[in-house]
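RECORD TYPE: inverse folding
INPUT: structure tokens
STRUCTURE:
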């Protein structure tokens, strides 16, 4: 597969597709995290009804999360952190590879970081 490099403009244009997908993914992730306590209670009680409605709903939530993540990745970007909704777009700057970096809730792609730096190394474009 050919490596895709994004310009800032291309990455920003993709946000129209990616942002609503990330919003749905984060909502579903929150639901899973909130239901975690219910699953722990079932396990602690020795309940083996893992075919019940709670387990089925949890499995469905995981499938939705995976489907949404696949849709986001299909645009050529990389999901870096589901807790914070971080997405990176491979790009080039001064002849070297970098990541353009976007976090859910930000209005546009305005940051980049070196490949090895991650979120803490973000700099304004």
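DESIGNED SEQUENCE:
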């Amino acid at each position: 597969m050919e490596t895709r490099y994004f310009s800032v403009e291309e990455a920003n244009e993709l946000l129209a597709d990616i942002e609503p997908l990330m919003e749905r993914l984060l909502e579903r992730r929150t639901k899973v995290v909130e239901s975690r306590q219910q699953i722990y209670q079932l396990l602690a009680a020795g309940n083996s009804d893992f075919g019940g409605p709670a387990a089925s709903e949890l499995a469905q939530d995981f499938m939705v999360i995976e489907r949404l993540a696949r849709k986001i990745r299909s645009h050529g970007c990389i999901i870096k952190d589901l807790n914070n909704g971080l997405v990176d777009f491979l790009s080039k700057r001064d002849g070297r590879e970098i990541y353009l970096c976007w976090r859910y809730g930000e209005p546009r792609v305005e940051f980049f970081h070196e490949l090895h730096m991650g979120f803490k190394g973000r700099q304004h474009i």
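NOTES: Helices lie at 8-44, 53-73.
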